[in-house]
Structure formats: structure tokens, C-alpha cells
Amino acid sequence: MAGVTALAAVVGLLGGGLGSYAVNQWSGDTSSVTSFDQPKPASNTGTAEPGSVQAVADKVLPSVVQIQARGFGGASSGTGSGIIISEDGYILTNNHVVSGAEGSGSLVARFNDGKTARLEVVGTAPWSDLAVVKADAQGLTPATLGNSEDVPVGSGVVAIGSPYGLSGTVTSGIISATDRPVRAGGESGSQSTVLNALQTDAAINPGNSGGPLVNMDGQVIGINSAIYSPGSGSPGGQAGSVGLGFAIPVDHAQRIGKQLIEDGSAERTTLGVTVDITGRTSGALVVEVPSGGPAAKAGIERGDVITKVDDRLINSGDELVAAVRSHAPGETVTLTVTDRQGGNERTVQATLAGTEM
């Protein structure tokens, strides 16, 4: 014990002596050359490699706007994002971004160069959580749209928007899954808002809504719409990102957006059935079949269970709704149908209809 104590004392003294020497030396010598004295380059010399997040951001940022919704009296009622789709001011966004300015409210776009402009609503599709607005502007940079039909799971993506009002924020991740049934705008209790979504782990927070999810070629493949919030137990909550974000596939958004520009409204694709949403069966249990609809014409009856749409497995009522809405009105799909016990399997053809909303 004595030897250990003595050794400890020597080490302590040496440490103290060295520390004192270092302080004295630093205090008395100012001739050292540090990094602070090195000349800095004239500018950042980093070059964006094709396919890098930086290259994607350089390409897409000019096509993304922040949207500020103001309610009655000019009070702020929320901030979201939007995607420029034409040089003369058409902008695609979420319905829940613009809904805060309904009535006597107003919408303002803040562009990437800092300029602002008032927005007018061209048309909305609340059931699909999409809206088109227009700014009185010219010479804008429209985004390049990609293809969401065959996006590979695991492929890289970049999300751009205004989370919590921080405009021009860029985050990156991958496509975690496709064909996720989620409720648009975070609504619950009604299948009127169910959409067929892309899932990503790129950080998406409140304020990213309406902004683009793009592939590594800088092409828009989705419109960010919802996040999963452990606090609320449903997509669309106000908690921060937990790596579960959802985007509306651009193929669907493009079809709806074109209708909104041309007509101010859009058709919702329908099979003509009401299904159980409790999840008590494996598949979509049909509880009502209105006469004259696509399902009735195809021979679907109350009590049938739909287990597939084409080759896509259906495990719930929401999955059936999402699968149907991934198609356009007029398309024909093959439905696999069983009874409640999973027997008497058969297939039928149904031509989907469109309901003006």
C-alpha cells in the first residue's frame, strides 16, 4: 500500500509539473503556427458527384417552396411545402397544408430565392390529400417528375421541405416499403382518406408536408404527406421523425393534379363496396355492395372476402381501398374472393369506376 501511494504521488507530481510547464510555455511563446493562421481557399471547392445528395439538392431546391397558411385576421395557422410544376406558377401540395386558409384566410409562398407571392387555390382533393395552388409568377423552375410504379425498396431518396418552418431543409434515406395503406393528412376513423403510400426513413417532420420525395436522379417520386407518431398512434401526429414517413406516389399525384388544374376537382377511384375496418378477418370483408357498382356487376356479394387485387395480397379493408385507389377509373382488375372461412376461392374481373369529389 505504501508503494502504491508513493507511486501515485509521483505520477501526480509529474502530471502537475508537466501541466505547469505547458502553461508557462504557451503563455510565453506566441510564435507557433496554428490552423487559424493558414490561408483559406477562396471558396468551397467541393464538387457534387452525380447521384449524390448534394447533386440532388442542387437540382431540386429551386423547385420547392415554403407555404404559409394564414387564417382569419392574418394569424398563422401552419406551414408546409409545395412543388413547383410549371414555369407560370402552378404548385402541387397537400390538401391539409392549404386547408388552414379556408374561408377568409390566405396562402403565401416563399421561394428558394427568398421572394414571396400570394397563392390562390386551383382545386383540392381532400380524400387524396392533394391540392394545386397558383402563384402570380413567371420563370419558375418546375420539378422533374419520375415514376413511382416500380420504385425499388432500399433505393436512396431525398426529402426536401420546411420542417417546423425551416425552409429548404434536405434529408436523405431510403425507400423502406411500398404499398402502405395510410390515412391522408393523419385522419382516422374513415376510409375516405386512405391512400397507397411509399414509406421512407428519410427524416420527415411537420412542415415537410407537400414537399417532394425524390430519387437520386432528382426526379420526384412522391409527395410527403404523413409521419408515424408514437404519441398519437397514427400517421400524421406532431411528434418528430421516428424514421416512418409516408409519401403519396407521384403517379397518383400526377393524375389527380392534372384533373385539379383542368376541372378544379378530381375523380376518386372506387370498387363499389363497403368493407369491414376492424381487422377481424384476413382479407377485406365485404359488408355492403351497392347495386349497379363495379363490384355488384362482377358478382361480389355481402359476406365475401377479397384477398387479392391482381397479384397484390389484401390483408385488411384499408389495404383493399389503397389498392383500388392506386388504379385509375376505367381500369379492369382481377379480384380473388373467398368465403369467411377462406374456402370456395374464385376470381372475378371488375372494371373500376370514378366518383367526382
From TrEMBL:
UniProt cross-references to SMART domains, sorted A to Z: PDZ (SM00228)
From the record, give the transmembrane residue ranges.
none
- Composition bias type Polar residues, residue spans: 30-47
Q: Which GO terms describe its molecular function?
A: serine-type endopeptidase activity
Question: Can you supply a Gene Ontology BP term from the record?
Answer: proteolysis
- PANTHER family to which the protein is assigned, alphabetical: PEPTIDASE S12, PROTEASE DO-LIKE 8, CHLOROPLASTIC
Q: Which family does it belong to?
A: Belongs to the peptidase S1C family.
Q: In its UniProt entry, what is this protein called?
A: Protease
